[in-house]
């Protein structure tokens, strides 16, 4: 099965974390794995990327097994693990979000005569996913829609993942963490399993996003009583959903322009020679994203999905500076008009759909991949009329 460029898997350990993500998805449908695991597949908003949401339970072992199961089932662009954690630094406030720049499996060690020696395993966040996460944090739009008075900050740092709930600042485990994993800013129980699953699947991008619900210092009962768990889960879910959107735009498997290449010209030249009764069918240089050429009756083109893909490409072109803000706004308006006509579905509306796309073509003509994608959508729409 090939990688699904428009789907991100999001896994959680607790039901409240699951519900926090689920509340941000639409069009949910259950998908059952052969072994009984249930996922819900939906979209972010009405036309955003698809998300497969799953519940793994507590602990690194189940998280590793079910992460592997989700990867095999969906072949996603990325996998996010989302939920709550205990904070280990005073600067990380309750409700803040921590993105794991590194995940430690801290229970590895060897017992010798002079004490327990650490044998840590660690996984770093992939560079491209790290860049995307910093961009989402920097832009700051992810926090819109949170409850009044919520102003969580985003921190990037190491997360320690073990097999016990830490609720003390002076226990033997707390001292062990400070001594051997002094850069950890949060502690939890699942990230190491998920990180290992991603590592074993050709370095699938894995990002761990945690909302801080307690301070891992003996005050957990108090903070849980103050409902910090659901609040922190909502904050983590908001950031993770925004990151999922960014990853589907910015991943190397998505619609962005590969690094080192310009967006306004194609550097590859193809030359085909046809003699006798032979004809050249399709000549293409570099094609990015999902491309369908020639709609067959058996496999009709999904115009709604194509419009959603084009919308994400336009957003990325604007973020990259290849499409100015004024042109982007006008292009968005035409795309909204086209999508509205597509939803109506009558013959008159199909005509309006094509008119809007032709206007849009004039707006994005200077961005080669947008113009190419739009030309394919127009051709497919004409073929289906």
UniProtKB/TrEMBL annotation:
This is Nucleoside phosphorylase. PANTHER family: 5'-METHYLTHIOADENOSINE/S-ADENOSYLHOMOCYSTEINE NUCLEOSIDASE, 5'-METHYLTHIOADENOSINE_S-ADENOSYLHOMOCYSTEINE NUCLEOSIDASE. InterPro entries: Nucleoside_phosphorylase_d, Nucleoside_phosphorylase_sf. Residues 8-243 form the Nucleoside phosphorylase domain. GO terms for molecular function: adenosylhomocysteine nucleosidase activity; methylthioadenosine nucleosidase activity. Coiled coil: none annotated. One of its GO terms (cellular component) is cytosol. GO terms for biological process: L-methionine salvage from S-adenosylmethionine; nucleoside metabolic process. It holds the Pfam family PNP_UDP_1. It comes from Micromonospora viridifaciens. It comes from the Bacteria. Gene3D superfamilies: Nucleoside phosphorylase domain. Residues 250-269 are annotated as: Disordered. Residues 260-269 have a biased composition (Polar residues).
């Amino acid at each position: 099965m090939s990688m699904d460029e428009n789907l991100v898997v999001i896994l959680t350990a607790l039901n409240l974390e699951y519900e926090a993500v689920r509340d941000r998805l639409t069009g949910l449908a259950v998908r059952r794995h052969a072994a009984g695991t249930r996922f819900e597949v939906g979209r972010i908003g009405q036309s955003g990327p698809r998300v497969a949401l799953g519940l793994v339970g507590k602990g690194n072992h189940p998280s590793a097994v079910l992460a592997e199961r989700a990867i095999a089932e969906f072949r996603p662009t990325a996998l996010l693990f989302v939920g709550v954690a205990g904070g280990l630094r005073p600067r990380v406030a309750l409700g803040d979000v921590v993105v794991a720049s590194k995940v430690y499996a801290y229970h590895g060690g060897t017992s010798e005569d002079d004490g327990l020696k650490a044998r840590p395993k660690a996984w770093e966040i992939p560079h491209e996913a790290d860049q995307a996460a910093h961009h989402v944090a920097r832009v700051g739009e992810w926090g819109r829609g949170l409850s009044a008075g919520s102003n969580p900050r985003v921190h990037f740092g190491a997360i320690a993942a073990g097999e016990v709930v830490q609720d003390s600042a002076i226990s033997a485990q707390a001292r062990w963490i400070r001594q051997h994993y002094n850069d950890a800013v949060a502690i939890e129980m699942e990230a190491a399993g998920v990180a290992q699953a991603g590592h074993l699947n050709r370095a699938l991008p894995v990002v761990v996003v945690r909302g801080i619900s307690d301070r891992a210092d003996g005050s957990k009962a108090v903070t849980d009583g103050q409902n910090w768990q659901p609040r922190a889960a909502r904050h983590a879910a908001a950031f993770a959903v925004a990151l999922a959107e960014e990853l589907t735009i910015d991943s190397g498997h998505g619609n962005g322009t590969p690094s080192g290449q310009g967006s306004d010209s194609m550097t590859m030249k193809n030359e085909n020679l046809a003699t006798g009764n032979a004809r050249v069918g399709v000549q293409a240089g570099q094609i990015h994203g999902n491309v369908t050429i020639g709609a067959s009756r058996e496999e009709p083109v999904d115009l709604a999905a194509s419009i959603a893909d084009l919308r994400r490409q336009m957003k990325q072109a604007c973020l990259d500076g290849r499409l100015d803000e004024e042109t982007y706004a006008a292009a968005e308006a035409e795309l909204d008009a086209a999508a509205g006509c597509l939803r109506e579905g009558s013959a008159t509306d199909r005509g309006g759909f094509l008119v809007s796309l032709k206007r849009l073509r004039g707006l994005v003509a200077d961005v080669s991949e947008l113009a190419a994608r739009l030309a394919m959508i127009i051709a497919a729409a004409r073929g289906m009329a």
